[in-house]
């Protein structure tokens, strides 16, 4: 699934509408980006309930910031920047919570039970793919999702993540290597050595 | 490997990932909640706490200065 950004004219008119406080412009942006953002958030947090909360917060911030958007705002980059920051904040809070929990017993993974994300997979290849993405370190997974699924250019991804384009390139290369290893026989034919 | 090569390979893989969407009711609830705020700016609630703190500090300062003037007229 590769979903590219809406056309430039669409984006410009949406930004104009948002700056004017038009609910119809918000509806158009919501329809255009909801699925993309939600997919990204679910794959980053691995929890649908958290992803839903973060999606709501992302669009609330867009609504509250609408009048102050620059006319040339790239909505995709803007929304993914907010979503990325929310994921980082959530991950930090999770980390603190886990540290505070200390020695409390944790729920063990049950055998071959599928996560809700993996349950979406309708073939062995897709299941392997979901698992390979889920196994990536979050920093690599994020770059792989933003570039591979969203089709965003490195400069824009670097801007979203607050990294240099070179760092993004390195993460992407490492993500690709790790995905190839994790996928093994499920990797696309073009991924295998000639 | 170049960046373009890595990006092309990842894009090829990304096509295979299933899209994930919200259920319609949740999507409608989120849209409804956020749409109300379009063009209204941040909620006023966000400003109430600092406003109360500012008012308390200011009134305390005024009271303290008044006491100083009373002591040293």
Nutshell version of this structure?
Chain A is mainly α. Chain A has 8 helices and no strands. In chain A, 68% of the residues lie in helices and 0% in strands.
Q: Overview of this structure, please?
A:
The complex is a heterodimer of chains A (194) and B (73). Chain A is mostly helical and 194 residues long. Chain A has helices spanning 8-19, 23-45, 48-65, 75-101, 124-135, 138-149, 154-161, 165-183. Chain A has 2 domains: 1-102, RNA polymerase sigma factor, region 2, helix turn helix motif (Rna Polymerase Sigma Factor, Chain: A), CATH 1.10.1740; 118-188, Winged helix-like DNA-binding domain superfamily/Winged helix DNA-binding domain (Arc Repressor Mutant, subunit A, Orthogonal Bundle). In chain A, 68% of the residues lie in helices and 0% in strands. In chain A, helix 1 (8-19) packs across helix 2 (23-45) and helix 4 (75-101) packs across helix 7 (154-161). In chain A, 35% of the residues are buried. The mean pLDDT of chain B is 87. Chain B has 3 helices and no strands. In chain B, 70% of the residues lie in helices and 0% in strands. Chain B has 73 residues and is mainly α. Chains A and B meet through helix 2, helix 3, helix 5, helix 6 and helix 8 of A and helix 1 and helix 2 of B.
Question: Which features would summarize this protein structure in a list?
Answer:
heterodimer, A: 194 residues, mainly alpha, Rna Polymerase Sigma Factor, Chain: A, Arc Repressor Mutant, subunit A, 8 helices, globular, B: 73 residues, 3 helices, 0% strand, elongated
Topology record:
The complex is a heterodimer of chains A (194) and B (73).
Chain A: H1 8-19, H2 23-45, H3 48-65, H4 75-101, H5 124-135, H6 138-149, H7 154-161, H8 165-183
Helix pairs in contact in A: 1-2, 2-3, 2-4, 3-4, 4-7, 5-8, 6-8, 7-8
Chain B: H1 3-14, H2 24-35, H3 45-71
